[in-house]
Amino acid sequence: MLAALMQSSWSSNVLKAGASQPSFTFERAFSDISQYQLLTGCVLDRLRLSVRPDRLITGTFGVIGKSSAMNSSPLDASPTAAAANDPMDSFSGSLDEGGSSIGIVVGLELNIDNNLEQAFVIGADEASSLLAGQSRITGEITTYFEDASLLNKFAARTESSLTLTCSGAGGSLEFELPRIVYTGAENPALGAGPITLSLPFTALYDESESTNLTITRTAA
Fold first, then answer.
1. Do 213 and 137 contact (CB within 8 A), yes or no?
2. Helices of type H across 11-159
3. Category of 61 on φ-ψ map: left (φ > 0), alpha (ψ -120 to 50) or beta
4. Taking CA 194 as the corner, what is the angle to CA 53 and CA 105, rounded to the nearest 5 degrees?
5. Using CA atoms, how far apart are residues 39 and 174, in angstroms rounded to an integer?
6. pLDDT tens, 137-169?
């Protein structure tokens, strides 16, 4: 799924952005009424990844497809069960900002958008193709406001980097954004609680890495 989202393929357990467009067929089973929705020509369009303290790491894929149909029988009467891997959580992860570990982050959102578009034509009831858009990677980190170092990076338009490592029983995934720029900063003082600093960011293309995002997988 990650390789399809990145429009690329794994090479020595490393994944970088590419320009291919693999497609899938998905089937939704409403087995109590023997109805099966067949979705064809499906391409991974986006990912919303959320990391919060004391929680499981969650991610939502967005899918865009060419056509849909209802059937009274499934494609596979005995599908293979999904792997029962333990979910990843924020306890086992780590985050580096600007090449150094940062332990004051209370939230991280990472958004990968391929901006695909369905191409419809007159005389057809399904999309003739899926048009590729420009890849865009954005996100936001929220930290405790302990000093002005991150705020100054935004004010001075200083480029930085982010590396998120998600770990679990089956291994780890490392998301490396080698070149980011903060596009905003907000640190409101609300009540008597701790002040937090929210910094939205955009990932830029890095010439040396030839990508704006590198994903590395490591087996346990």
1. yes
2. 149-155
3. beta
4. 35
5. 31
6. 999 999 998 889 999 999 999 999 999 999 888
